[in-house]
Amino acid sequence: MTTDIKAALRAQAIETPSWAYGNSGTRFKVFAQPGVPRDPFEKLADAAQVHAFTGIAPSVALHIPWDRVDDYAALSAHAAGLGVRIGAINSNVFQDDDYRLGSVTNPDPRIRRKATDHLLACVDIMDATGSDTLKLWFSDGINYPGQDDLRARQDRLAEALSEVYDRLGEGQRFLLEYKLFEPAFYATDVPDWGTAYAHCVRLGEKAQVVVDTGHHAPGTNIEFIVAFLLREGRLGGFDFNSRFYADDDLMVGSADPFQLFRIMFEVVRGGGYGPDSGVAFMLDQCHNVEPKIAGQIRSVMNVQEATAKALLVDTGALAAAQAAGDVLGANAVLMDAYDTDVRPLLAELRAEAGLEPDPMAAYARSGYFEKVCAERVGGTQAGWGA
Amino acid sequence: MTTDIKAALRAQAIETPSWAYGNSGTRFKVFAQPGVPRDPFEKLADAAQVHAFTGIAPSVALHIPWDRVDDYAALSAHAAGLGVRIGAINSNVFQDDDYRLGSVTNPDPRIRRKATDHLLACVDIMDATGSDTLKLWFSDGINYPGQDDLRARQDRLAEALSEVYDRLGEGQRFLLEYKLFEPAFYATDVPDWGTAYAHCVRLGEKAQVVVDTGHHAPGTNIEFIVAFLLREGRLGGFDFNSRFYADDDLMVGSADPFQLFRIMFEVVRGGGYGPDSGVAFMLDQCHNVEPKIAGQIRSVMNVQEATAKALLVDTGALAAAQAAGDVLGANAVLMDAYDTDVRPLLAELRAEAGLEPDPMAAYARSGYFEKVCAERVGGTQAGWGA
Amino acid sequence: MTTDIKAALRAQAIETPSWAYGNSGTRFKVFAQPGVPRDPFEKLADAAQVHAFTGIAPSVALHIPWDRVDDYAALSAHAAGLGVRIGAINSNVFQDDDYRLGSVTNPDPRIRRKATDHLLACVDIMDATGSDTLKLWFSDGINYPGQDDLRARQDRLAEALSEVYDRLGEGQRFLLEYKLFEPAFYATDVPDWGTAYAHCVRLGEKAQVVVDTGHHAPGTNIEFIVAFLLREGRLGGFDFNSRFYADDDLMVGSADPFQLFRIMFEVVRGGGYGPDSGVAFMLDQCHNVEPKIAGQIRSVMNVQEATAKALLVDTGALAAAQAAGDVLGANAVLMDAYDTDVRPLLAELRAEAGLEPDPMAAYARSGYFEKVCAERVGGTQAGWGA
Amino acid sequence: MTTDIKAALRAQAIETPSWAYGNSGTRFKVFAQPGVPRDPFEKLADAAQVHAFTGIAPSVALHIPWDRVDDYAALSAHAAGLGVRIGAINSNVFQDDDYRLGSVTNPDPRIRRKATDHLLACVDIMDATGSDTLKLWFSDGINYPGQDDLRARQDRLAEALSEVYDRLGEGQRFLLEYKLFEPAFYATDVPDWGTAYAHCVRLGEKAQVVVDTGHHAPGTNIEFIVAFLLREGRLGGFDFNSRFYADDDLMVGSADPFQLFRIMFEVVRGGGYGPDSGVAFMLDQCHNVEPKIAGQIRSVMNVQEATAKALLVDTGALAAAQAAGDVLGANAVLMDAYDTDVRPLLAELRAEAGLEPDPMAAYARSGYFEKVCAERVGGTQAGWGA
């Protein structure tokens, strides 16, 4: 069985986000860190380090306009030269003064047009980079009851989504992201999986739901949503991160590793694991106080450990206990996998692949961080604004 | 305009639940109250009082098996004699030892069969009573990760729902209720509106979603769900009550009257108000510490007041402010209606209908409570168990 | 009785925060607005408008270093010339790169010293401006389990608070603010009222707790905390705002006006109302999408309306119903006051004081907003960063 | 180091609650289980099994009146004969119709007297059984705003607590428990640790706070409270259980094992571990759907595993990383302990103590469950009501 698990783990691919390598923060303060990239090329270089030490982070998500470049072919080639490739294109229709009252759901048709045009331009970038996935997150919503018409905003949303959907080419898809709140506080236009799902179903197969693990109300059972969307054939992927309270964007697996394990178990159980599943594993995090590249390496490792544990579950014993109504027995089968220390297995896996067994230590030894700190002096550090 | 509002208010109908007249409580204690009915006939008599004093509570929901009788025609006739009628039939598949691990989603096919048979029997009671609405709430879920297979439970749920759906006759429908948690603590099989919606869409037009206002995670915007379901044509009705934290089942409008107003505003705005809308207004409450009939009267009045305020919104001014992006102006239009004291208007409305202007005081003066306290001695008080 | 209520309302004073007049936003975007002040003097001018139209906003809180000036006497004189005065001094130890891992609780003693020195400098500004209140909010906390020692951070906090406490002069006090989360996500060093209370009790009478209405976990009963702190003699004041989910900083009374009423009722009932109570009513809000001066006027009016309703409660009838165990009767007494439309009373009160009855409309007619939009061109708009 | 850890683990004592062996459920249904005890003597027999197989559950908490007997000396002797002893006495002032509107905070002085007398009677039982700990949990609170006076209820609470405090003998203490909500829904009289703490501080050293891990609002950092109370010398003990949403009373460690580990780490770090610490580890759970004795064994093991991991933390390395501001390094030290599989260590520990290495399997093999199922026929099964 260990052989099968290792094979499955070797096939894993976790996408890191270009913006995780830039500065980030809260509304209170963005703390600048040394060595932070100044442009998309340097972000890719950092992302390539994560892949170099983990072996399972071969692609990098872009955020437009933060990662806008003149020549996407050059950017793709740069990535290839670093041993990585460009992944999902993330649209951004929330950082222009025009979007104060919304983007595609704005009451002003001029602004809606502008926002939709941006989304269409993102598909152009998909064409230019070979990316097959467009990720759509809308900060749209309202802060006060009555501020705008909840239903009219759905009509506008549907119209924009439909136009973008029709623009998608062969082999392209979009993932619609939902989020309970922030930056809108009273009502968000895509607040939950049900809303995203309903829009996707109306549009067709190329529209799927993406689950950001930090975007739910307290008490929400995320793995249930995962299981349900897989059953409906509508789970497009994950934006992984951790939260204790709101959308904290901490390192995935750092707040509730057991939850991450349960999610990965449902992914595997529901056929969402593996290259043919169409389920993308992406990180979406902010390293506000910790170093960024190391933070990404640790995060990738956390997903890998949760995956290994999920693959370890004795599904035969589990099914037998469940069928027998053996509550404690069934729970124990699951917990037995979770309680297992999979770090030796993963160290072995890495060694077999020619990697260092301990990616964190190996990265620290590499001197890369010191190098970029020394080199990246001057210029403007990348962040959410650029 | 006041004329229109009055006409709209005269057409309102709020259904009270038979179980609100019996004893209820928490897992810690059910406090017995004097005068509580001993059987469904006495429950109907109490419900008729609510209608007599408010004029807008003409129907009574039944709960099976709590309200099982030998002769439903006799029960219907009894209701008619009291000036009320039988409303929705509520199924109950959570109070038999067999349902410890679930009813229609139980791993044991024998128990699933038993549960589904109960649901079908409820449709028989609909036929016998002339009720057009079956309300389905499933307590099904699991307490521990791994206890049962989340996805298999959805398959079993879909199978049972399909069988019940096929049994529905002309003019009959079922409403599928969702609930975040309780009595299941780790995962509930119908935890949110998205799950209920997806099952209903697969089944067809006779399957609709019912929104219980106490069944959401903290921070959930309920009026958004109302607006969305109305847009999709899938809002079947409400189970009204109030909550501060969980499914507290307090008097509707007592915890957050502004939220109730916002919900009613979306109902009206989305075409969910009025006899032709198909949206049922039902109460689902527990009067654990307060008197039950008076508690129902107050609750009906709270819904009526919220409705009156919702009807008072100057929709023209609201639309204009929204279109202009006037955040404070649009909010002010809504708040102006909410801040209005509609009690004089409603007193006038009642007087015009030949009712006492103050239902609470009139009921207190009527001596009904003292009468039933004196009469209903001996026997077993109705409660959740009977 | 109306006479007494009017007298009480005339004595009300609500402090507006200088930072509410500058730009603000979320981590995603700060939307710039026209006419925003460029310096503390212009902020005071805007605040004076709020007082001019409401008559009950005579003081303005400062935030240091955002409102740092060379000559505080000149700033005080400027305020006096505008008909307002300087209120609480708010310290800020969260916007320096040094504070990435905390200010007064930072593991590095050099940074702790720097932070404490800033707090002491704020007392100097109190001396210079005649302010009697220092407001202490610490963003200090950690994002990851293990990141720092929870208990050692309390020791460091106690040490800094003690040093600041000893520096307070005659007639000066500090208010310690608590907050559940943000910007720290795993653990905040002053997360709840109990923590603030315990530190204050150890220090002495000049240390009191301030309640920010947006800083609690879901389900928290804020009016309970108010009642409890008043009973203990430790309620120093409020930072008023509204929230639906987290620390949304919306206009007070906009999300849950009933809650605001309940809070004001406990304030009045517990002796926290009136100039001698020592309980400061302060706003702490962000007008991210709505105009700022108008937003403050509306907020002040919302507090005033809630106060008027709280004063309207028939406390004799309430006490009688409570003593009799009359659940519905007691609740009805409270609701009767809440359901009253107090806007006519407040319009009358304003007219008697020589103010326009409708502050929002009067401000709009005044042309002030258009004037500052025209005048305040160039320079750097004030915001959280300056 | 392993030697020290083993020594520390050998000294651990976890108290199981008599009521965990009886039937329990939710307000919807109590599912009866086979083999359930009919009286306190049989409950002690079941509890003795938990101790027999784990070796670390030597005492059993009683709940009065559920465990009322004529002869407490006989009950104590029975316990001793089974190898266990009687632990904390839990008072119950929530299951009498008189307590509908509260017990010690009831507006009716007669009922307050009755409730306080019950608490005093519990101290009598402490004298009779040799128990040194009284656990006080009050379900007191109100369901509706205005229902009763929040502050007056605190006065009444203080009065009752003072009377009970004065009755405590040499070497006796009481633990005051707090709970956010349930069964009261609007306001609970002891809703949070701050309230319990403030009352205890006023009373003296014999009054301490007990932390029930299921009694907090979402997002509350429980280990912070633990650290804070230990720093203040006021942590009396734990009521351990797990929750996903409310007070679910699931097996401790089953919902969030990482949280349990963090709590145990703060206990150890703050001097709360070990027989001299005065911190009692108690379970307070309901096994609604799973078998009860096995559920208790599993729970005791979960606490033990979390303790072992907490003891494994390399505190020297942790302190060094914290002092250096090494966020990822410090977190990694903590996670390294958590990720360790401690089950082999614990199996070894048990073997050294003459126990079976796998308590769950050993208990299953013992045939005890089958034996009591066969023997305990007839009579009334114990539950919350008896």
Description:
- The structure is a homotetramer of 386-residue chains.
- Chain A has 14 helices and ten strands.
- In chain A, strand 1, helix 2 and strand 2 (59-64) form a beta-alpha-beta unit.
- Chain A has an eight-stranded parallel beta barrel with strand order 1-2-3-4-6-8-9-10, surrounded by six helices. The first copy, chain A, has a two-stranded antiparallel ribbon with strand order 5-7.
- The first copy, chain A, has one domain: Divalent-metal-dependent TIM barrel enzymes (TIM Barrel).
- The first copy, chain A, has helices spanning 2-10, 40-54, 72-82, 109-129, 150-167, 193-203, 222-232, 257-269, 292-312, 315-323, 327-339, 343-352, 359-366, 368-375; strands at residues 14-17, 59-64, 85-91, 133-136, 141-142, 173-177, 187-188, 207-212, 235-240, 280-283.
- The mean pLDDT of chain A is 97.
- In chain A, helix 4 (109-129) runs parallel beside helix 5 (150-167).
- In chain A, 46% of the residues lie in helices and 12% in strands.
- The first copy, chain A, is of the alpha/beta class.
- The relative contact order of chain A is 0.15.
- Chains in contact: A-B, A-C, A-D, B-C, B-D, C-D.
- Chains A and D meet through helix 8, helix 9 and helix 11 of A and helix 8, helix 9 and helix 11 of D.
- Chains A, B, C, D: Residues 52-245 form the Xylose isomerase-like TIM barrel domain.
- Chains A, B, C, D: InterPro entries: L-rhamnose_isomerase, Rhamnose_iso-rel, Xyl_isomerase-like_sf, Xyl_isomerase-like_TIM-brl.
- Chains A, B, C, D: GO terms for molecular function: L-rhamnose isomerase activity; metal ion binding.
